[in-house]
Write a structure and sequence with these properties.
rod-shaped, alpha+beta, about 60% helix, 6-stranded antiparallel β-sheet, single chain, 4-stranded parallel β-sheet
Amino acid sequence: MISHENIVNMAKDCNIKDEEWIVNILNKITDISQQNRFSHQPFRIKKIAIKKFAIPEYGGVSCIPSEKNCLIWGSHRSGKSTTYDALLYGLLGKRAVLRPSIGKVDVSITLSNGSMDMKITRKYKKSILVEIGNEPYEGVEATSILQEYTGIDPDDYRTFRGITLPQRSETDSILQLTNAKELTPIIERFGSDKKFSQTKDFVLTSLDEIETVVKQLEVQDSDMAHEETDVKQRISSTKYQINQLKDYIKNYESGKLKKLVQTLEKNPEIKNQLQKLEHEFQQLQREDLRLRRLVGTATHKYVDKTPEEVVENVLLKVVCPVCENVIDAERIQNRINNKYRCPLCNEQYSWDILDKAELKVEESKKVEEWSERIKEINQRKTKIDDEKKKINFEYSHETTRRVIKEQISEKDYTGVKEKLERANELLKDDEERLKKLDLARRQNKEELNELKNKKDFIKYLINNLDDTKSLEKAEDEFENTINTIFRRITNSGTIIDYENGEIHLVEQYGSRERKRRARDKYDISVGEKRALDISIVLSLFSMNQESRYYNIDFIILDDVTEGILDDVWKNNLIEIIDEIGINTQLVCTSYDKQIKQLNFSCEEKLQVQTRLDENW
């Protein structure tokens, strides 16, 4: 886990000003580090009732360990391994059992954690039944309840088998049942710190939340930028209009307008020339405004976008009026290709929205062409002004237009004054709006910068919660633990080398090294093979006790000393298991008298059954 000191230092390095946010992050990580994956205490086995399983000759088991160590005692062919399979079947179902047939089964296992009992029942041709108190759960619901309380998942049976020891090591051990690629994730699961995973999930969720807000702010800034452009254009247009109107009023009040009308009446050629110039100017002015509006609506820059991206871009501007969140991009994306339906509301739509998006793309491609045309218009408008000067007519276009039309009455004058008053009010409103937009954009930019700093900080956390580091940590823990256990059993200097799912036994003879592959059964002895299988299981179980991948506090060992022929090795093994049994419930099957050195509170004896059960 990342230390609080590192988190605080990184937050400072990222220039994050929101101290409350940092405190919340720290508090959440602290809460996660202090909580358990499961809300209940780990479970032990309270009662076992196996009436039928696999073969008619099997006599079954009925015992009440009451959450304490339990020994199921039986001679050769009495059903010890059948009992082991029945226990796996009861907990995990048929897929966990490596038998061609399991017959007419009747198995129930009661788990308890001291405060609650959970009875698991599996019967022939019936769904799993889980009973908690007086509440029964069947089928999928029962499986879900079992997983919720214990973490046991029938679909993940290989992982659970990794913390149980089969007697049939040649075929049923985890090393024989998994290849290198399958063993690696099993080790990672047991070694993975669930608090680590929860912290990573929290950090990733925080990143998603930040990116959602960033996207909202970017959309808002884009909208404000477009509005700012519109307001600036309107201010420019309004100022131009005000100057034009003021020119008219000034010339009206000075009495020049009447003289101008009289002059034009005497010079019809000049009047005609002015009319042509003014008519052209007004056309250019209208075209200029139209093109500027088109350029304004096309400023999303769709030139390099697909129609699908255009639709997503446009719809992401839609904000829910209830929760104020931008509509989910993934949902839009999933709906875009559904023709004739709106990707926003999914209702029937008369025209393929992608066709409209295609038009947007085409419009965007014309922005450059329109901008070039606007330049040409402005150049021509300048020339028109120059031509007016040549005929000694340096009045505004508003004045020129009204003089040509002889709009110089008192009524016209009053109308222009009212128009000027409205234009000044509009200019005042727009200038105030522009100030607010400028302030809002600056605040938006500051917030975006803060969020981007938070993103950098979150990415730092993610880098420190890298899955590869989690796997490396799990593999190191596994290798250290298996070496400790194997060396204690064998009293040897053999090194267990684990890498990428492969296990090797390594011995040093001076400068010479001997390396044997554990999966090669002809390269290691029977005793070494069994000692290694036991070491793997006990290592994984030890890791589970730390990580609580499974919320259990019992281990099932089938004929644990079988294959350990060396008395010293066997005594060492029993000593290790005895230590485990202090804080963990042992459920063992055996016919080895030495195993009775362990403290078993419950002992059940299996009988070799030679008579077929008539009720089978």
